[in-house]
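Example 493.
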Amino acid sequence: MTSMPDAQPAATELGASGLLIGGIWQACEETFPRFDPAHPGNCTGRYGAATAADVVRAYEAAAGAAPAWASTAASARGEILLRAAALLEERLEEAAQRLTADMGKAIRDARGEAQRAAAILRYHAADTAQPIGETYASADSELLLMTISEPVGVVCAITPWNFPLAIPAWKLAPALGCGNTVVWKPAEAASGSAILLAEVLEQAGLPPGTLNVLTGSGAALSEALVSDPHLNALTFTGSVPVGERLRLAAASAKIKLQLELGGKNPALVLADAELAAAADQVTRGAMLSTGQRCTATSRVYVEADAYEEFAELLLERVAALQVGDPYAETTDVGPLASREQLLTVSRYLRLAGEESVEVLHGGTFADPEGEEGYYVAPTVLAGVDPESALVREEIFGPVIVLAQVADFEAALDAANATEFGLSASLFTRDIGRALTFARRIQTGQVHVNRETTGAEPHVPFGGMKASSSLQREQGKAARSFFTNSKTVYLRPA
Ligand code: UN1
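Predicted structure in complex with 2-aminohexanedioic acid:
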């Protein structure tokens, strides 16, 4: 590895508040406080509330830096991403603690996420050495016919709070690696982690203006973010309603768009499955990260012959989860990320009461106005009407709806009866059914004998139906989104 550039002072040392524009961490007139999801009385930091005028300045900085960054050698861009990965690993414990303070993820999972973000940076560093085009035979044998890909220009990344480091890494690393400059708006509940990630990218040697960061409210900034004339491509992970608004805005602005939205991910358990292993995987997929993953398992369809046994195995495992202080090493399930999240998830749990469904486990939640943390018990519901909002809508909490189905066909039909299409799992020993599942399930991610969550950096990630804009993230798909292809017909003079 090349020698490290002189370390710049960290934003936090400067007392800066989350606005990085043109390589300078800036103070902000307005700030917003964040509170620890486990101890809502504790303020974890105050961050700058960017304004529409800051958005304009960030785009100007990104547009100004774009030509030089696009013509920087791809290998030099890759070196910076590699250095950022190393710097992030040096600060791994701090990054994990900050992530937990931001949004309450259990510390072991927060460490795993920080490590994952470093691995993503490394993958995209290596990807800068991949081919940037193809050569074809032409009808004219004299001619060299080829494609070359170029950066799209200025990218806006709007990232969620549920993976404060990994999702930004998988958007920023390929965007920057492919030679784009970036305006990044992290979720308010991920501000502390976002500043740390921006610091390591800056310290790794990104030129000023290449990455610009605006903390603040998405609602207040989205109009300015999507309507700026410098913007060439927008990548967003978040909710369906916000995604739908961005889809319209991007269409009228005629920019490239990558959306990763919600999920209502099913797990199908057939009678021939290894039921104990299936129960392990379903528990992990549904409950870890407090169910706040767009890939979380939320509907479980079990073949009738296995239902009783599977339900028992599942409930044993759910009951064994350690719920509580996210900073404790033994905790599996921390609080929800915010009061808003607790209000949303508790609304669904109240609905379960109103609809008189069977609460097999959990169903309880903390007082959203209280001081004891935004906790909700891992919950397993049964006997839910397939038309209920509990089955149809993304809850984004640790809640499973368990249902009995007659056979594989009925499970497949139930699994596909949703507007979402992100991820799905099948548990079986039957390879024929596994193949049928892979072909007929209407999701972008298909898992057999494993949980619905997870995403490796070198393969495409994304959904179908309402879950996505069909522009995949990660792997080769990232390169295709963050570049434009030119077809060149070259005839010697
Ligand atoms: C994972 O399951 O590890 O917001 C990744 C989300 C997804 C990423 C999930 N975009 O939960």
